[in-house]
Amino acid sequence: MTNLTNLPAWKALQAHHDAVKDVHLRDLFAGDATRGERLTAEGAGLYLDYSKHRVTDETLNLLLQLAQETGVAAKRDAMFGGEKINITEDRAVLHVALRAPRGATIMVDGKNVVPEVHEVLDRMAKFAEQVRGGQWLGYTGKPIRNIVNIGIGGSDLGPVMAYEALKHYSDRALTLRFVSNVDGTDIAEKTRDLDPEGTLFIISSKTFTTQETMTNAHSARTWLLNTLQDDAAVARHFVAVSTNAAEVQKFGIDTANMFGFWDWVGGRYSIDSAIGLSLMLAVGPDNFREMLAGFHDMDEHFRTAPPEQNLPLLMGLLGIWYNNFFGACSVAVLPYDQYLAYFSAYLQQLDMESNGKHVTLSGETVDYQTGPIIWGQPGTNGQHAFYQLIHQGTKLIPCDFIGFCQTLNPLPPHHDLLMANVFAQTEALAFGKTLEQVLAEGVDPALAPHRVFDGNRPTSTILADRLTPRTLGSLIALYEHKVFVQGAVWNINSFDQWGVELGKVLAKKIAGELESKGEPELKHDSSTNTLIRRYRERRDA
Ligand code: F6P
């Protein structure tokens, strides 16, 4: 493929950027009374207002041309078609198969994978009904009331985010906990008030070899057996979600209580697979299936909606406009819903593990920026923390505001106030306040500069009617496909994560050195050696 920066659309965007970079949103809105209705798109239950972006019709045309020249649509079809687009691991990328309806056909290596997907979903549903209905009993005959998911990365962030997001729909008689950190404090605090006789551990790990998860799983086993005193109890209190049956068996979990998935499901794309078991236990199989339907709605929208109406395509391209032409380094994701408290943290892995890459598919070092830094907090808390910098700082930070028209907790006037803040923030960020306006308010001229808001800060507003399982599915899929679009344009592999390997390997080696009494290996640098020595001295003091 031609180098990205040599493509006609890229060059045209560069020239166009030079011409429009100082155009203000005030002028764009003043010049087009319909902009706020025109620059919107809708699909899969989500409404996107992208009018408060620093784009003209020409910008949008050029960005769509860039998508064409980089073959985004063909790459999308290759993913949906089960081609092995994860070339460094020789794998298909088929999270879209996890939410394909029964009866659909998606072929990998000559085999339709959809029936297997539904087979696992049906087994999960059966198990979930047993636990929720109190029929799945612990070793001493008590029903399971506490569920602890042990996993990390994609085997934790998806379940915990979606559980929090859908708490309104959950069975409040069940206590859900999520343990991820290898820091013993995590498991100690999450189990300290639980009754082992009524506790079920779900060990969620695609590989079943991840250090953090296996360490926590072993500690959970010890915690359980301290009370139950019989290895046979493990079978009633542990289930596994993994692709690695051999390791599951080695741990002592009956593979009859293992829920599988496949190598074509990436960790950060696995919430729809058996990795979502804890969520299904909490909200029930029907709500879980509704969520899958929402994902599928967005898959279909992404696959079939025309480019100028295609939400993930538009969001991906707008991100590229700021990342590659304005030099913006980060994107703030600001959900105005307390249930979405973990959404930005979830997106950090989805986006940054996917697109934090420095070489193209063919291994050449890129000469352009790739994935942005993703961060954020639920509104309105962030307003009283970091919004100052977004409004008046020196950095350009495009923001995604996410809100719902109906609340799940009607408690007037809370929801109107919450949504008033969404609209106020995006308005203030776009239009700001000029020196003239400040002076006209009678502010002391010496202080006036401090009160000026330049505005021209770009935002997307995503509105949905209500936070339902289905809406949540659409929303997550929107971001999955946004990430896909950007990776496709940048011509990188969004589906491997070699960047986390080096640290893992070194940690394993150093863990051995921390255990031994001998001198740290002199192969480390002098800083690492001194730190290891000091830690060991102080630890054992
Ligand atoms: O962070 C690296 C990673 O491989 C993620 O991609 C994955 O979600 C996580 O570790 C956990 O891996 P596993 O599910 O195999 O324990």
Shape: globular
Look at the helices and sheets and give the structural class.
alpha/beta
Strand content: 5-15%
Average pLDDT over all residues: 97
Q: Within the largest sheet, what's the order of strands?
A: 1-2-13-12-10-11
| Main sheet attributes: strand count, strand direction, barrel closure | 6 strands, mixed
How much helical structure, as a percent, in the residues? 40-55%
Q: What hetero molecules are in the model? A: 6-O-phosphono-beta-D-fructofuranose
Using DSSP, what is the number of strands?
A: 13
Low-confidence stretches: none
Distance between the ends: 60 Å
Radius of gyration: 25 Å
The tally of helices reads 22
Give a short overview.
It is found in: Cytoplasm. The protein is an alpha/beta fold and 541 residues long. The chain is 46% helix and 11% strand.
Helix/strand layout:
Blueprint: H1 8-20, H2 25-30, H3 35-38, E1 40-43, E2 46-49, H4 57-69, H5 72-80, E3 107-108, E4 111-112, H6 114-132, E5 146-150, H7 157-165, E6 175-179, H8 184-191, E7 199-204, H9 211-228, H10 234-237, E8 238-242, H11 245-251, E9 258-260, H12 277-283, H13 285-304, H14 311-326, E10 330-335, H15 343-355, E11 373-375, H16 387-392, E12 399-404, H17 414-431, H18 435-440, H19 448-451, E13 459-464, H20 469-490, H21 501-515, H22 526-539
Parallel strand pairs: 5-6, 5-7, 7-8, 8-9, 10-11, 10-12, 12-13
Antiparallel strand pairs: 1-2, 2-13, 3-4
The chain binds 6-O-phosphono-beta-D-fructofuranose.
The site of 6-O-phosphono-beta-D-fructofuranose has 14 residues, from loops.
